[in-house]
Amino acid sequence: xxxxxxxxxxxxxxxxxxxxxxxxxxxxxxxxxxxxxxxxxxxxxxxxxxxxxxxxxxxxxxxxxxxxxxxxxxxxxxxxxxxxxxxxxxxxxxxxxxxxxxxxxxxxxxxxxxxxxxxxxxxxxxxxxxxxxxxxxxxxxxxxxxxxxxxxxxxxxxxxxxxxxxxxxxxxxxxxxxxxxxxxxxxxxxxxxxxxxxxxxxxxxxxx
Length: 208
Prior knowledge:
single chain, mainly alpha
């Protein structure tokens, strides 16, 4: 007579699934709360808006810095996804960069990043993500330099700074999505120019 299959594994899988769902609810609620109220928003407020107990929040993120770091990592992973899509595209560099900026504009409410008014987090994982994003955007720019569609003095930091500015709506702007996309296309048109050279020195990560 065969024994009944053990039930521990399905239960463990369900617990992991529940924990992952709770973690995503916390991060989604925290993103909204931090953007609305700042990084000092009470953890209890985040728990309430996520629909979980305060103990669940602290179980996943024992401290406020841990939660803010998780929000920043989550945001950089989203930017990385967009940058990777851009680097893998076969379309001309200006078209690819336009799409990257439009994705940044569309996802602005999901970002908690230093250039978007978020906290500056010193973390090796974040530094690695920033480096990978810059490298992927450099691949797009290099492709454009080779075929003559992108000016030689444009840098990944130029793209990142512009994306950060376009992802922050101006007060009282009636339709920021439409206005930001217009500014993005003007910026991309400027990338195609070759003369005169851009003013000032190239922006660096340290200065940023």
